Amino acid sequence: MSNAALAEALPAPSVILQLLAKLGIACREVSENLALPAARRVQASLLEDSVGTLLVLFPQSQLLDLNRLTELTGRKLVAVKADRLERMLGKHRLTRLPALPPLTSSPCLYDERLLQEAQLLIESGNPGTLLEIAGSDFRRLLEKASAARFGVPLEQIRPNLDRPDDDSAEITQAVKAFTARRIQQRLEETIEIPPLPETAQKIIKLRVDPNATVEDITGVVETDPALAAQVVSWAASPYYAAPGKIRSVEDAIVRVLGFDLVINLALGLALGKTLSLPKDQPQHATPYWQQAIYTAAVIEGLTRAIPRTERPEAGLTYLGGLLHSIGYLVLAHIFPPHFSLICRHLEVNPHVQHNLVEQHLLGITRDQIGAWLMRTWDMPEEIYTALRFQHDPDYAGSNASYANLICLANGLLRQNGIGSGPQEEVPQALLDRLDIPRDKAEDAVRKVLDAEAALRELALQMNPPH
């Protein structure tokens, strides 16, 4: 939880305190913070199918495996739709779901390992405040509930963070396993990935040409009308506050955006458009292009905060931000029947990083597959590294700053409610490695959040509503 979020903590709702008092359950209000042990924090998920709803309780140190739940119950359960859950909570004036079976009329299933803890922490119903309840008292709340073991300890899920040479074999193995087990069709000799677009090929050539001029990049961008329109609208956005009207691509480059930003922006847009957005996505997910643009914008500010002598190439750090989640699109492209399974697991595990969910279900992560695609497309090594190691805050290998910047940007955005996964404290070691003071990092995020409306407008241009 960010400091801002902690400042907005509300006391526990009276309806919850009265319910516990009526049941004779003692509780203590605790301010939510990131140091509280996950094994003591109870995650409550309200699931449903055609039979009805089921309240599922498990510790935040575990991942809820919907496949195991199906084996246990014989039911194919998914998260209750967000608007329905909001209406249900709204009746009690709550914004979060407390792990209290008496509050709902739903049957309850809990992971029996919860009761190994002497004290448990549950959501109070208001953000920022938890309720601490003795394990013996919590057991009384579960008298009518059923016990089982269905959670997967997060410590057992180990994404490949340090063996990039194994990526190709692991991706092939995952495709073979899923094809043989579920799709029942012949596996092609190669994974079908769209070829690098012609526009992107031309831009890459310009990127490595030390003699390339504004006229060169203008010529390439103008051959792609959709790309040209986006570059012009980017420059005209309130985010850049350009004086006067932007009349052409060249005008956008010379007066507002600059050569490096346009060349990397154009490349990011061309590559991102190669893979279509999946129709399915997790509830509450930040839209793909919104996440990409916010991340790139934060990285732009973070890069400027790095001392000039240590600063990585600004255009490439921005491009890394734009493309950081392209592996998400590739997963949807390669595993279409199973991508929805990933989405459903992300919905019921909001406390878990997406790379752990993907590792558990597929044996690979979007980071591995996105980095593999960058290699396939002969993208710069800095971009490969940025995508491959973006979830490792301790990565200190070659081109580390590119990966570290994505890790930092996404961590800061999550603390402000943008992006999926748990809110975690940004490690001081990560800031130290980049030589960015914490207050400068928070300033970079604040600038992006202040310009949220302008950036959201840019994101809509990437994926206009039909």
Keywords:
YbaK protein, alpha+beta, five-stranded mixed β-sheet, 466 residues, disordered N terminus, three-stranded antiparallel β-sheet, Hypothetical protein af1432, elongated
What's the gist of this structure?
Helices cover 50% and strands 9% of the residues. With 466 residues, it is α+β, with helices and mostly antiparallel strands. Strand 2 (42-48) and strand 3 form a beta hairpin.
The CATH C-level name of the largest domain is Mainly Alpha
| Largest sheet geometry | 5 strands, mixed
How many DSSP helices? Answer: 22
Could you give the count of β-strands? 10
Q: Indicate the overall shape.
A: elongated
Which strand order do you get reading across the main beta sheet?
Answer: 5-2-3-6-9
What are the segments in which pLDDT stays under 50 over at least 5 consecutive residues? 1-7, 180-190
**What is the fold named in CATH at topology level of the largest domain?**
Hypothetical protein af1432
What is the topology?
Elements: H1 3-7, H2 14-22, E1 28-31, E2 42-48, E3 53-59, E4 62-64, H3 66-73, E5 78-79, H4 82-90, E6 108-111, E7 119-123, E8 129-134, H5 135-141, E9 146-148, E10 151-153, H6 167-183, H7 198-207, H8 214-222, H9 225-236, H10 249-257, H11 259-272, H12 288-305, H13 314-323, H14 326-334, H15 336-348, H16 354-362, H17 366-376, H18 381-388, H19 400-415, H20 428-434, H21 438-450, H22 452-462
Parallel strand pairs: 3-6, 6-9
Antiparallel strand pairs: 1-8, 2-3, 2-5, 4-10, 7-8
Helix pairs in contact: 7-8, 7-11, 8-10, 9-10, 11-13, 12-13, 12-19, 12-21, 12-22, 13-18, 13-19, 14-15, 14-17, 15-16, 17-18, 18-19, 19-20
